[in-house]
Design a protein that fits this description.
Nuclear Transport Factor 2, Chain: A, alpha+beta, globular, 121 residues, 57% helix
Length: 121
């Protein structure tokens, strides 16, 4: 009986693992979608369009800036982007995604900042 239970358990775990793993097509589609969002983000940023930037977030998104201020929800994020892009520190900024790596559990996006351009020159 123990051998039967063990074999059944191993079979069940194998089924769970294979059904939970994304297919290659799904992974490629996910990565393409991530790249498209990166492109849309860059375009909205470079137009200094707070509404377009905010539209890329979930309605209940949380955003914490580099100073630790917590913005709760899409409307709060849009207000922040309006303030920083119209009269604030980002009004003359440009953003370009250099690399997107969607192969890991999370997604890492590398962008170019004015500081990195200044040090590269």
């Amino acid at each position: 009986m123990t051998k039967t239970v063990l074999i059944s358990l191993i079979g069940f775990v194998a089924i769970l693992l294979t059904s939970a793993a994304p297919s290659a097509a799904q992974s490629a589609a996910d990565e393409a979608a991530i790249r498209q969002i990166d492109q849309m983000w860059d375009e909205a940023w470079n137009r200094h369009d707070p509404k377009a930037l905010a539209s890329l977030l979930a309605e209940d998104a949380d955003f914490v800036n580099v100073t630790g201020t917590w913005y709760k929800g899409r409307p709060a994020f849009e207000r922040l982007m309006t303030a920083t892009h119209q009269d604030g520190i980002f009004r003359d900024s440009m953003r370009r995604t250099l690399e997107t790596d969607g192969r890991s559990a999370g997604t890492r996006t590398v962008t170019e900042s004015p500081a990195s351009r200044a040090t590269a020159s």
